[in-house]
Amino acid sequence: MTKPHKGPSPEEIKEKKDLDDALEEGLEETFPGSDPVNVTQPAPSRGDSHVKRTD
């Protein structure tokens, strides 16, 4: 017999909502545009060595 499927945890729900909100904000700020929205932050380049980043 198999176990019943559990739903997503509250943390997973919050993470998905945060990602959806970030995507929606990016779409609104770039509309109309021809390039797709990038939700993730790119890695720092050599020229960014003086910038402190927080995650």
Q: Unreliable runs, pLDDT <50, ≥5 residues?
A: none
SSE pattern, N- to C-terminal:
H
Strand percentage, roughly? under 5%
Radius of gyration: 18 Å
Helix content: 25-40%
Q: Tell me the structural class.
A: mainly alpha
Overall pLDDT confidence: 79
Major β-sheet annotation: none
Shape: extended
End-to-end Cα distance, whole Å, is: 43 Å
Tally of individual helices: 1
Number of strands: 0
Describe the structure.
This protein is an all-alpha fold and 55 residues long. Helices cover 38% and strands 0% of the residues. It is built from 1 helix and no strands. It has one helix at residues 10-30. The longest helix has 21 residues, at 10-30. The chain is extended, with a radius of gyration of 18 Å. The protein starts with 9 loop residues before the first helix and ends in a 25-residue tail after the last helix. The relative contact order is 0.10.
Summarize the structure.
With 55 residues, this protein is mostly helical. It has one helix and no strands.
